UniProtKB/TrEMBL annotation:
It comes from Candidatus Korobacter versatilis. Binds 1 zinc ion per subunit. One of its GO terms (cellular component) is ribosome. Zn(2+) binds at C16, C18, C37, C40. GO terms for molecular function: metal ion binding; rRNA binding; structural constituent of ribosome. HAMAP family: Ribosomal_bL31_1. This is Large ribosomal subunit protein bL31.
């Protein structure tokens, strides 16, 4: 092999949020952290439900609840304005 043109190809540890981990080799520096792997992905497990170990679904729900509240707030304001306009 020609020197100084090849990236380092060391052994790395791959860790999934489901707890599965295995070793492989990669030019990636340091360990690799995954949200999903072949051990927990629905395609491989055959189960529909996704394991939410990293709290991603929870975070999404929180974000959505916030925007939903804003929408209902805006809708309430709009109906209040309409009601006020109808009175005149
Ligand atoms: Zn996994």
């Amino acid at each position: 092999m020609k020197e100084k043109i090849h990236p380092v190809y060391n052994e790395v540890r791959v860790m999934c949020a489901c707890g599965n981990n295995f070793a492989t080799r990669s030019t990636h520096k340091g360990d690799i952290h995954l949200e999903i792997c072949s051990n927990c992905h629905p395609f491989f497990t055959g189960k529909q439900k996704l394991l939410d170990t990293a709290g991603r679904v929870e975070r999404f729900r929180r974000k959505y609840a916030k925007s939903d509240a804003m929408k209902t707030d805006a809708a309430a304001k709009a109906t209040a304005k309409e009601a006020a306009g109808a009175k005149k």
